[in-house]
Amino acid sequence: MSKSILENSKNQQISMKLPDGPKIHSLFQLIKWVKTPLEFLDDCVQRYGDIFTIRLFGYPPIVFIANPQGVEQIFRSKPQSFGIGPYNEMFSSLFGSNSLSLIAGDRHQREKKLLMPSFHEEKVKSYAESIYKASQQVSNKWQVNQLFTAVDSMRKIVLEVILEILFGLTQGNRYQVLKSLLAEWITVTSSPMISSLIYIKFLQKDLGAWSAWGNLLRLKRKIKDFIQAEIDDRRAHPQDQNNDILSFMLSATYEDGQVMTDEQVFDELMLLVGAAANPSADALTWALYCIHKFPGAKEKLIQEIDSLGDNPDLMKIAKLPYLTAVCQESLRIYPPSATTNVRFTNSNIEIMGHQFEAGTSLVVCTHLIHRREDIYPNPKQFLPERFLERKYSTYEFTPFGGGHRTCIGKALGMLEMKIVIATILSRYELALANNEPVKPKRSRVNFTPSNGVPLVMKGKRAAQKAVAL
Question: Which residue among 210, 250, 396, 455 has the highest number of C-beta atoms inside a 10 angstrom radius?
Fold first, then answer.
């Protein structure tokens, strides 16, 4: 993003006609966005239609698009059409300025091309066993008639997967140290305080270890020191590198023969941890909530899993149609994020008949797209069958973003959901601990269940029905 675009963007947006939006002061819009974002979006689409402008205090206006036609126009645009703007840069403290989420254009394409082999379909299949083992490791600790919180268990599973797939660690002192650091990072970055501070720049002050932001920065430094030591050791002993993503990053080369710098490796790892931790754990928690909230869906799902017989292959499980539909429907109602990446226009662009000048922030609103009644009749109802009856386009179903910024871990995320759910349902009889209403609450840019979804393990299912390798 050029300096001239940043300097001129405010004046440009004053001179152009942006779509209509809320008239209240930008400070109150920011408060609504931080405290009750989904309700704020629902109100905006009802008042102003499926393309509207929100103004958040301290940031330039941002145009929300909740129409498949507009989504297609954005997703089909060339990568060079968009840059990195203020809404992306607010996450640099978490992910670093070298991560895929904070680079654009040719550099983004070059970096993504380098990393893609680690997330290719065939490579992702090799991660299935790690996901299965992590599911077993955590669920084996559940006790009959003992209450546990789904989100806590799912975070533990996801953390084990991260440690093995990203870092190749499954035991030992290094495993224990990094596990402790990342567990704390996941907890800290999902706290309401940090979720709010991300959007309020003037409060991002390091006031010492006792302050929320100061604690975040010190924790990140500890993680960076640990990972740097790991990088140094692996660069010194390349013959010892394994099948994990960190090893791949250190050995991969660009077309000109160059390798990633240590800073690039660290930033990409932090992005992958962030993308794999809370979003994946929340997606799994929402799926378990939906499955146990609607017994009919649960019974169909269990029957489908059991139909594979004893010791089914994990990749056969991943291809089960109803299991896939359950995961998709859960992601539709409760997507990991309410929006895709913000696109900051590098030049003039037309979207749905609206002319936008360079320096405009545009975002696809996943939450609203997924709740359009013309695409999803009875959108608030959990109906996995809709995904068996119709194939939705990438402009109608956007839980992993789209276009050149589609989430690099999309295939891995879906595989993880399917294997974890199938492993748990085949081994245990679970039930919701209560019928209290569950609402999404902000956790960074993600939305986690307000009560964490308390579950009770009622008993173990017949051993011969359990998923096994």
Answer: 455
